[in-house]
Structure formats: structure tokens, C-alpha cells
Amino acid sequence: MLKSVEDPQVAGDDAAPTRRPGGVVTALRAIVQAALMLAVLGGSYLAMERLIAAAPERTARPQPDVSVPVEAVIVAAGDERPNVSLYGEVTAARAVDVRPPVSGEVIAIHPDLSAGRRIEAGDTLFEIDPFDLEVALAEARADLAQTEATIAENEARLVSERSQLESAREQLELARSDLARAEQLRGNGTLTAKQVEDRELIVSQREQAVSQRVNNIAIEEARLEQQRAIRTRLDLGVRRAERDLGNTTVRAPFSGVVRSSTVETGRIVAANDVAVAMYDDSALDVRFTLTDAQYGRIATDADPLIGRDVRLVWTVGNLDYTYTGTVNRIGADIASARGGVDAYARIDATEAPVQLRPGAFVSVTVPDRLYEDAVRLPETALYDAGTMYVVAGGQLERRTVEVAAFEGADVIVTGGLAAGEQVMTTRLSNVEDGLKVTVPGAEPTQTDDGSTPVAEARPSEEMIAAAKRLSGLTDAQWEALSRDERRAYLRQLRDRPGAAGDG
Q1: Under CATH, what is the fold of the domain 95-129+248-278?
Q2: How far apart are CA 485 and CA 65, in angstroms?
Q3: Burial, 353: exposed, middle or buried (Cβ in 10 Å; 0-12, 13-18, 19+)?
Q4: Is residue 307 packed enough to be buried (19+ CB in 10 Å), middle (13-18) or exposed (0-12)?
Q5: Residue 436 per-residue DSSP state
Q6: What CATH number has the domain spanning 63-81+370-442?
Q7: What is the pLDDT of residue 47?
Q8: How close are the terminal C-alpha atoms of the chain, in Å?
Q9: Mean pLDDT value across residues 425-448
Q10: 83-93+283-369 sits in which CATH class?
Q11: Which of 54-66 are b and which e, b meaning 16 or more Cβ less than 10 Å from the residue's Cβ?
Q12: In what order do the strands lie in the sheet with 78-80?
């Protein structure tokens, strides 16, 4: 039998099951938990509000009127000549490379001829075998003697020719006189024409003889001059051979130290080869380079650079040895490789235990130019390029100064400060114009009420503890404070009424 859809029994088979009573209980439980949570939060908020309202009102701690302790120096103007610190190299003012003038075998040397040894002027450095040069000198002298004999022979022949020339001239005169008489006798008819012609022939022969003698004399004179020229040349050869023979002994040109030597007994040395190098240890210079700015300052000074005394320090190991010198010349050219002008100072003789050597690297102190009416201050007083701070009335005043030069830890100022002013020399990280400062150890100043403040004494442990409580800082924060900040709290503690009972 078919059932209708609306039949409750039929519809109940496909519909969702009816809600059970346990689901309602779970929903009610969640609502109760949310309500309790809101109640707890509300109660906590109310309790907090009541606690805040019941807490005493705290006021901001007043900032202490900090006065930073600083160090200062009083300005005192005067003439200042700073020093320029440079580095230089010791050089030999006089050095020589000894070259033998002749070649030959070395047969003897000086016993101290080795690098680093000192040799006196005139000492024999080495000797060369003189045998070949002695032979050359003997040959030159023999050639000269032969030429001298030839000259003597030519001179004797010349004398003979001149004597024969005089005889020939006398015979010519006699022949001419006889010819003249013959011509007179011919006019009288005493002599014939042939007899006169014979006499004319004799005159011609005598004239030819005279001419021959004159030519012979000219030839002999030319030969004599030629032999004399040969003698002059051979004489020079003898002198050269004598000098070469004397040069077989090579001597020291001056007293000095041997730099190097290539000479050994039995070695063949060639002429003009460097055999010994030495320098004069009594004439040492130090070469140093001045920058363009340094040279420009010193060159425009009233005192010239040449003649200034310099100070040298040579560090050997852990010891410093001091020497003195005088500037005696300036380099001829600009030292472009070193960026300045080279200057040379002659080092004074000294009895220092360590003798300077060429090539030593030394520090050089050279007087700079003179600055009149200048002030020397510690470099810590300089802020920025040209700023200093003057302590006036317990406050800092900014000043613009003219910096002329630096020397070590000092600065030379030529303008911007007045005599008697106090210039702060303490470096502050936060420095500004108007900052309140105090100068410990300075003369006490009058306060506004005319009283004189008492100098600060070293704080006791009780005062330090009271200042720490006043600051409200922990021990770690107190230790992190700077010294000036701790002093500020101590000064604030002293200024409080009844400070004596804070301990």
C-alpha cells in the first residue's frame, strides 16, 4: 500500500536526526567562559586605574647646571722660532776613485788596503812593476842623446859653411877688383879682350861659389831646426817616461776611509780602471729636502738659510747619537723626485763613540723662520683649521686665530689672541660657544655676591654615594659616566641645602 509524502512516518526516514540535548550544554559552557574572561579583563583594568590614581605624582628631575672642568694656559706673546723636523742622508763631501795612470802588474799593496780601513794622506796604496817603464825611459833617453849628437853635427857643419861663405865672398871681391883693373888696362891697349874675358869668367865662377855656399847654409839651418824639433819631442818623451815610472807608486790623495779595492798582489791593473775608492771622513755632509712651503718660509726670513745650525740624530740599535752641523750650500736644481729643494749641511767634527758613515739615515732639525709677537700653545687648543676657545667669565668664547706653524705638539699662532687671555687646552667632544667651564688651579674669581668660592676638594666615599643616589642611576650607569659628568653631580650635591647630612 502506497504512503503519501506528507505522511509523518515516511518523511521521518529521510530527514536529519533531531538535535540532542548535549549540544545545547556545550554552547552554554562557551558563553559562560567568554563572560568570565571579559569579567577578569574588566576587573584588571579597574584595578590598574585605581593603582595609577593612587600612585604619588613624580616630577621631572631638574637638570644640573654643569660647569665642565678644563685646563687652560695664559697667552704670552714673544718671538718664536720653531724647528722643522726632517730626515736626511749622510753623504761624503769629498770622494775619489783612484785610477792607476799606467798599466802593469801589482807587486806591493798597503797592509790596510781594504774596505772600511782608514789610510793617511801620502801613504802608498800599491806599487806597479816598473821594469817596462824603466826600459821605455832608457830608450827615450837614448833617442834624445842621438838627436843631441845630430844637432851638434849640424851646428858644426853650419859653422863650416858660413866660414866658407865668407872666403868665397872675399875671393869674389878680389875677382871683381881684378876685372875692373883689366877693363882699365884694356882701354889703354895694355890687355887684350881675351884677358878681360878670362877675368869675367873668374868673377862668374866666384859668384856661383858664393851662391852655392848660401844655399848650403839654408839647407843646414833647416836640418838643424828639424833636429831641434825632434829633440823637443824626444825630451817630452823622456819626461813622460819619467812620470810614468814615478806613477808606478800610487799614493793616497788625502786621509780617508777606503770604500772598495780591487787591487791584489800579482794582479794586472789597466790604466784608468778604478782600483781603489775612498772618501774623506772629516768632510761629511747631510743632505735633506725642504718642501716648497718650508723653503719659501725660510728663504723669506731675515736670516739666510746658509749658515744655520742644524741638529742630527742617528739611531743605531736602541741608542741615539747626536751630531751638529751648519748649512753650507743649497742644491743647484729642484729635487722634483723628492718634491722640494735639497740643502746640504757640513757635519761638525765630534768625539762621538760611533763615527758617521755615508749613507746613514738621520733625523735633521732645522730652525724655521722667526715669528715676531707670536704665541706658542699646545696643539690640543686648536679646533678645526683655525679655531680656539678662550675662557672668559667662566664661559668659552670662540676665537678665530692665524696659525703660522706647528712644532711637535705645539702650534704657533700669530693673530686672534690677546696677551693675558686663558686659552682652553682640553679636548672636549661637545664644545660650543658659551659653555660653562672651570679651570682647576686657576686664581679664584669673585662671585656675583662678592664672595670667593672655595676650591673643590677630593670627594669622600660618602659624597660619592650621595651623588649616586641623587642621580638615580645604577652602579653600572654611574661607572659609565665620564669624569666631568660625575663632577657635575658632585657639584650639584654640594649646592643643595643641608648637603652635609646626605652622607
Answers
A1: OB fold (Dihydrolipoamide Acetyltransferase, E2P) (2.40.50)
A2: 11
A3: exposed
A4: exposed
A5: B
A6: 2.40.420.20
A7: 79
A8: 111
A9: 76
A10: mainly beta
A11: eeeeeeeeeebee
A12: 78-80, 371-378, 410-415, 402-407
**Class of residue 431 by CB neighbours under 10 A (exposed 0-12, middle 13-18, buried 19+):** middle
Strand order in the sheet with 118-119: 95-98, 276-279, 256-261, 118-119
Residue type, 252: A
Give DSSP secondary structure letters for 338-349.
TTEEEEEEEEPP
Q: Which residues pair with 104 in a beta bridge?
A: 269
| pLDDT at 39 exceeding the cut of 60 | yes
Among 130-139, 303-312, 329-338, the range scoring the smallest mean pLDDT is 329-338
Could you give the angle at the alpha carbon of 449 between the alpha carbons of 446 and 450, nearest 5°? 40
> Residue 469 belongs to what H/E stretch?
helix 461-471
The per-residue pLDDT for range 156-176, each reduced to its tens digit, is 988 888 888 888 888 888 888
Measured in degrees and rounded to the nearest 5, phi and psi for residue 115 equal: -60, 130
Please say whether the beta carbons of 275 and 101 come within 8 A: no
Higher pLDDT, 404 or 468: 404
Q: Which amino acid is at 451?
A: S
Measured CA distances, 74 to 14, 71, 373, 421, 442 (Å): 112, 10, 15, 5, 10
H and E: helices and strands count for the chain: 8, 24
- Tell me the average pLDDT across 370-393: 90
> Cα(48)–Cα(44) distance, rounded to whole angstroms?
6
- Residue 72 belongs to what H/E stretch? strand 72-74
Instruction: For residue 398, give the C-alpha cell.
Output: 670662540
Enter the pTM of the model.
0.57
For the chain, give every domain's residue range: 63-81+370-442, 83-93+283-369, 95-129+248-278, 131-245, 458-503
DSSP for 357-388, please give it: -TT-EEEEEEE---EEEEEEEEGGG-BTTTEE
What superfamily would CATH give domain 131-245? Helix Hairpins (1.10.287.620)
The Cβ-side half-sphere exposure at 410, using a 13 Å CA radius, reads 13
Report helix angle 131-188 to 193-246, nearest 10: 170
Q: Which of these ranges, 55-69, 235-249, 299-313, has the smallest mean pLDDT? A: 55-69
Contact 217, 162 (CB under 8 A): yes
